[in-house]
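for the writeup, i need someone to sanity check this before i put it in the appendix. the sequnce is what the collaborator sent (i think, or maybe the updated version? ugh). structure was predicted straight from it, no edits. if anything looks off just tell me and ill rerun, i have time this weekend
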Amino acid sequence: MKTTFATVLVLLTVFSSLAQCADPPSPQFPGPYPVDLQVGEIFNVCKIGEIICPARYQICDDLKVADIVDTPDGLGFRGVGLGTTLCAAGGNFGPRRVFRITVH
């Protein structure tokens, strides 16, 4: 019984120490890129330089808030309805980028 209690105590101490030493978010892995749109407004993803275009792989969580459109300059997200959703896009090279689309 003493061994089990000691083991639990050590594990709690280790996990507590790890939680206190957690690193802040890395600039290498930033959070979602914030985008504010009006209904009908289009955000051109390729113009901002956050992904390597042409964008090939794109997705939006809620198509009632934002959808994917083609623009003369490449991929775009269009505000459809009020709310917030996450969209992501990426090209053949480089990482995908997540965008937090808020439509007002």
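The chain is about 20% helix and 40% strand. The chain has one domain: 26-103.
thx in advance!!
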